SAC3/GANP/THP3 conserved domain-containing protein (Gouania willdenowi), 400 residues
Amino acid sequence: MNRPRAPRRISHAQRLAAPSEANWRQKTNNPWQGEDVAGVNAENQDHKQHDEETAPRGICQTMCPARELQDREAKRRLHRFEMLPGTEKVQRPKADPLRAVKEYSRPAAGKDSTNPANLRPPAVLLITVCYLIDDIAASPDLHPWTEVYSFVFDRLRGVKQDMIIQRVSGAECVAVLEKTVRFLIYASYRLCGEPLRLYDPCINDTHLQEYLSWLLKLYTKDTEPHPNQEEFQALALLYNLGSPPAMRHVINLPDGLRSSPSVTLAMSINRAFLERNPVRLLRLADRLSFLQACALHRHLAACRRDLLLIYSHGYSSRNSRFPLSKLGQLLSLSTTATSELCQEFGVELLQDAQVVFSKAAFTEAEQRQVTCKLYHSIVSDKQRDLTVKNIVHGCGIEFK
């Protein structure tokens, strides 16, 4: 009878040579597909039968079709953001036609999703997205923001559904996608660390990748110039560091776009990522704009962990001392946050603000839960006076 093999011991040196899921070269279940159109997914399978026919054209001039509004009001399915002020606490709240937005609904057998009366034309879809950003996501009076995000996320899916059914393209489609991508990137940073019942980063990532793929495909197919293309080419690469499709996409960009400041900086950060140089990566990250830093932020925790691992091997000696303040500068963290991070990974701290690195004492990330949200200073410091409205509409994207 064959005996089960004992697990093979893996040295720290081997871990350095072969990064794992805990390493900063993260592997996702939904890698960015630069060659695919976001419309190829479960949501538009119902509409493939219409490919050879003329796409329907929406005639609904309100954010929510009248029939849906009446139906949801009768069935008490109004969100509190859509209720007529003053009726929220009555038995059957009234719908506010100026605040109600068409909700996302899954394609179902026997359901006609191509009725023009229930479809909003591109101009109305863009107005709807602007309302969701300006009056809901950016409102200082609506909270908690997890509920705000959930409402906006669902209504944006409804917008996407209308665009797919009508096969919308052109400038208005690009504008909708750009605002949606900015919102989801910002949300991935702002809601980092929230309980899964309130915010699921995997679902957010899945939809963000689809919107990005669709947007970049439009950039490639359209002959007209898009003034924000440089911004989103850089965001796509920063969000998907190390992704082969993302890198191939950037390499194939026209020379003028590939050599633009934002894309050049993103490529430098991606190169530091591939070369496993967290010190250079964090130094370059200081030059990013706030939204660019939001796109990068999901890689930062693993990057910092790798920096501590590399230094634990390179400076491993009981007689070696490394200044805590200098380590904080390398990690782009305050002294207090640096101390907490060192404790999380088993790096010894002395009373005189010195660090003692030891490859034997370093604790692998799998054995510790590092709360990413506690180490967001490299991103949060860039926000300054930027509001949600500024961020999603593309203001303040300059970098150093």
User: Anything to note?
Assistant: The chain is about 50% helix and 0% strand. Confidence is low (pLDDT under 50) at residues 6-31, 34-52.
